[in-house]
Amino acid sequence: MIHVFLLFSLCFSDYGFIQGVTSLGINYGQVGDNLPPPDKVLDLLTALKLTKARIYDTNPQVLTTFANSNIELIVTVENQMLPVVMDPQQALQWVSTHIKPYFPATKITGIAVGNEIFTDDDTSLLGYLVPAIVSIHGALVQLGLDKSIQVSTPNSLAVLEVSYPPSAGSFKGEVSGVMSQFLQFLSSTGSPFWINAYPYFAYKDSPNKISLDYALFNKNPGMVDPYTKLHYDNMLYAQVDAVVYAMSRLGYGGIEVRVSETGWPSKGDSNEVGATVQNAAVYNRNLLRRQMSNEGTPLRPNMRLEVYLFALFNEDMKPGPTSERNYGLFQPDGTMAYNVGLSALATSSSTSSASISLTSSATKASKMEYQSLVYCMFFYLLTFQVFMRRQH
Hints:
It is an enzyme of class 3 (hydrolase). Helices cover 38% and strands 13% of the residues. The chain is of the alpha/beta class. It has a domain at 24-54 and 153-347: Glycosidases (TIM Barrel, Alpha-Beta Barrel). Strand 4, helix 6 (126-142) and strand 5 form a beta-alpha-beta unit. Helix 5 packs across helix 6 (126-142) and helix 6 runs parallel beside helix 7. The two termini are 15 Å apart.
C-alpha cells in the first residue's frame, strides 16, 4: 500500500496546479506624497494574488499592517546605515529593533543590506558593505532567525564590465576584490545574488543597435551566444546569465541569481527613447507570461527565475528624469497606469477581487498538467481497487 501512496503523492507534487505564480514579486516603493496607506496596499496585493513584495526600508506601519498576511517581505537597511551596522553590536540592535518584534507574524524572508552599493556615487560605502552584511547575518544567527531570513544586496547591472555576449560576462575590475568577499558570503550562507536588470536602459542608450522586440520579450529572432551556442530570445535572460558567468569567473558558479528589480517606464523625457505606455504594458505583460511558466534562463533552464517587478505605484517625489516617477503598474489612487493583464482594484477603496488573466502557452500547459493529474488519480484509484480485490 505504501507504494501506491508514494505514487499518488508523486502525482500531486509534480502537478501542483494550485501553486500559481510563485516566482513573481513586486517592489513597493514609497517615495510619494499621495500614496495609499499600507492597509489599502495590502488589499491590492491580496487582490492581485501577489505573495512577494520588497520595500526600501523597515517602515513599522508596513511591517505591522502586513502581519498575519500571505505576503513574504524583503526589507532594506538604508545605504546611510551601513557604517553603523558594520559593528556587530549595532547590527544586533538594528535587527532586535527592526526585525524581531515583527517576525514571524510578518513574513520577512530577506534583508537587503543597502541598494546598488557597488555602483553608488559614494564610493566609501563599498568598504562598509561586506562587514555590514556579515554583521547583520551574525545578528540573525544570534537571535535564531538566520534559517528564515536571507541576507544579500541588490546590484545594478552596471557592476558588470562586460555583459555581451552573456558568456563573456565579467565584473568591473575595481570592485572584484569586494565582490569576491561578497560572493564568498553568499556561497557560505546559500543566499541569492540580487540584480536590478532593466533592458529599457540598454534600449534607450542604443535604440538603433538593439531590437525593441528583443528588449520587450516580443517574438524576434533573438541571438545566439557564439561561445555557448545558447539561444536568447530576450535581453533580460541574457543579462541574468551574464551575471552567472561573471560569478563563475571569480570561482562562484553555484549561486542563484534573482532579479530584484525590472520594469519599463510608461512616460519619459524627450530623450528617453521607448518610455511609453504601450511599451511598458507589453514588457510587463510578456514578463508575466514568462513567470506563469516558471521559466529559467537558457543557461539554467530548470531553475525558475524569481523576478520582482518595479514598481507597484508611480512615485511623484522620486528625483531624476521623468521616467523615474513613472514605473508603476498603478497610479497612487489605485487605478491601473495601464492594462498589464492584471484585472485589479479599480480604485484603492474597491473590494472587488482580482487575478492574473493572460491567454498564453502557460494556460495550455496548466490544462495539460490538470489532465495529467486526473490521469494520475485515475491510475491511483484503479491500482487501489486491484489491491483491495487481491486482499479478498
